[in-house]
C-alpha cells in the first residue's frame, strides 16, 4: 500500500510539473518535478527526468538539462520505454542544451544524428526541419 501511495505522489508531481511548464511557470514546474524525482521508482524515473530536463531548458538552465539528457539518450531503457519519437526528441533537446552551454560541436553532432535517423523518413517531419535549421545556424 505504501508503495502505491509513493507512486501516486510521483505521478501527481509529474502532472503538476507538466501543467506548470505548459503555463510557463518554469520555477514551479521544476519544484514539482524535483520533488517527484526521489519518489519515482525505476520505471517512472525516465518520465520525471525527461520533463525535468525540458523544464530546465525552459528556465535557461541548459547545463542541468544536458546532464539528464545525456543519460537519457545513452540508455537503451529510454528507447524501449518512450519509443523512437520521444527518444529523438530527447536528442534534439540535448542539442539545444549543448547550444545553451556553448558546446556548438556537440550540439551539431546531435542535430546530425536526427538528420541521419530521418534521412529516409517523411519530409514533413517538423523536428527534422528544426534540426537542419539549427545545424545550418551552427555552421555559419
Question: Would you mind describing this structure in some detail?
Answer:
The chain is mainly alpha-helical. It folds into 2 domains: 1-45; 61-140, Serine Threonine Protein Phosphatase 5, Tetratricopeptide repeat (Alpha Horseshoe). Helix content is 81%, strand content 0%. It has helices spanning 2-22, 26-39, 45-58, 62-73, 76-82, 84-100, 104-117, 126-139. Helix 3 runs antiparallel to helix 4. The model has no long low-confidence stretch (mean pLDDT 87).
Which helices and strands occur, and which strands form pairs?
Blueprint: H1 2-22, H2 26-39, H3 45-58, H4 62-73, H5 76-82, H6 84-100, H7 104-117, H8 126-139
Helix pairs in contact: 1-2, 1-3, 2-3, 3-4, 3-6, 4-6, 5-6, 6-7, 7-8
Give me some keywords for this one.
mainly alpha, globular, 0% strand, 140 residues, 81% helix, 8 helices, Serine Threonine Protein Phosphatase 5, Tetratricopeptide repeat
Shape: globular
Structural class: mainly alpha
Helix content: over 70%
Q: Please provide the count of β strands.
A: 0
What would CATH call the class of the largest domain? Answer: Mainly Alpha
Which architecture name of the largest domain does CATH use?
Answer: Alpha Horseshoe
Briefly say what this structure is.
With 140 residues, the protein is an all-alpha fold. It has 2 domains: 1-45; 61-140, Serine Threonine Protein Phosphatase 5, Tetratricopeptide repeat (Alpha Horseshoe). Helices cover 81% and strands 0% of the residues.
